[in-house]
Each structure stands twice: as C-alpha cells, then as structure tokens.
Design goal:
By secondary structure, this protein is of the alpha/beta class. The protein has one domain: Rossmann fold, CATH 3.40.50.880. It starts with a strand and ends with a helix.
C-alpha cells in the first residue's frame, strides 16, 4: 500500500500542487499525495503532512499569523505531538513558528527585498524527517521565493538549537540576514521541520537542480516507517 502524504491548503497557498507533483515523482505504488483543506479537523490516515508555501490568509498581520487559527492546525499539533512527520516549506515554516510548533520567527529580509533565486545550503543534521537519508555537510542547491524569510530568535533559543542539534540547514551565502545563516530548524524530536528553501521546486531536469529530491526522499522514508508502525 502506498504511503499517504497530506498537503495542507490554506486560502492563499500557491505551492500545494508543486508539492503534490514532486511527491508524485516517487510513483503511485510508493506515494499517494493529496490535498487537505485547512478546515479539516482530522489527519487520520496520513503518514506525513506538508504545509506548503504561499500567502496563507493573505499574510495579513504577519505571515502565518491567521493560518495558525485554522481548524487543521489543532490536528497538525496533535499529529506532531504523536510523532508524525510534519514539514513546513516557506510560508508553511512561518505557520509552524506562529503556531508554536517550531521556535523563533521569520521577519522581513535584510534590505527589505523580495528574493526569488537559487541558493546554496548545507545539511547540518540527519536526525530529522527531512534529512534522515542525507549526510551532514552535503551541499544542496535550492530555490527561495520570499520576502519574510529572515530567521530570528533570542540568544537562549539559538544556544538551545545549537546544543540540541536542531539547526537543519544553513545557507552557504546568507541571502536574507537569517541569524546564524539558518535556513531550517526542527523540533526536539526531529519530526517537525521548517525551512525557507523550496525542495519541491528542485526535483526534475527542467529545473536548475534536482537536490530537492533527496530531502523529499527522506520525508517519504520517514512517512513509510510511520505507515508500518503497529497501531
């Protein structure tokens, strides 16, 4: 039976179909990816959840600030607490921080410029659902597309992220001013990951890189393991 991955859609999401298409490259026998409307209150039956990029609820107040109150986010919080793999990409990362599922916050880019380019990132840990099949130090080329991707947190939180091996990805040439070059972080258990780069946009020969497939492979492996855990 195929591993089932849900991609949450908020009003204003615009990368959900990109994620579904990228996951579809693994083939229907291995992965079944589908959309989950933000009004859903249950994630039963899913082996992993992705919060995609876009402008959830128009990014009013702050990116992710309204999306955190969507009914599905209570289900996401319960799913994550139960050990379920959850990945937030770009706006999805912002939603996870606003919901308190990840530490820190995303603020406006240094120089107040919208960034749409390809950047280099380095894998910092393999203890997460997004990097479990990677290697520490691996260099990846991934697209970014954001105005508020500048990760920030207080000094104590940064010290804890470093000490607990929770910095997942770092930029090799910081494009947005993120503290400590951080491009992605995880929760204590490594099953919730947020990142600003878009791995789903680096998955086939028509793009500048296929490095995103390795990250999605890790997610699929983690989801498959969860699918085979006895209930």
């Amino acid at each position: 039976m195929a591993t089932k991955i849900g991609v949450v859609v908020f009003p204003g999401s615009n990368c959900e179909h990109d994620v579904v298409k990228a996951l579809g490259l693994f083939g229907p026998a291995r992965v079944e990816a589908g959309l989950v409307w933000h009004g859903e209150r249950s994630l039963a039956g899913y082996d992993a959840i992705v919060l995609p990029g876009g402008f959830a609820h128009g990014d009013y107040l702050r990116p992710g600030a309204l999306a955190r109150f969507s009914p599905v986010m209570e289900a996401v919080a319960k799913y994550a607490a139960d050990g379920g793999p959850v990945v937030g990409i770009c706006n999805g990362f912002q939603v996870l921080t606003e919901a308190g599922l990840l530490p820190g916050a995303l603020q406006k880019n240094r120089g107040l410029r919208f960034l749409c380019t390809t950047v280099g990132v380095s894998v910092c840990t393999t203890r997460t659902v997004l990097t479990g099949e990677s290697t520490v130090g691996a260099q990846l080329s991934l697209p970014i597309n954001h105005f508020e991707g500048n990760f920030t947190c207080d000094a104590a939180t940064l010290e804890r992220l470093r000490a607990e091996d929770r910095i997942v990805l770092r930029y090799t040439a910081n494009p947005n001013g993120s503290l400590d070059d951080i491009a992605g972080v995880c929760n204590e258990d490594g099953n919730v990951v947020g990142l600003m780069p878009h791995p789903e946009r680096a998955c086939d020969a028509m793009t500048s890189s296929t490095d995103g497939m390795g990250l999605l492979e890790s997610l699929v492996v983690a989801a498959t393991r969860r699918a085979h855990v006895p209930v």
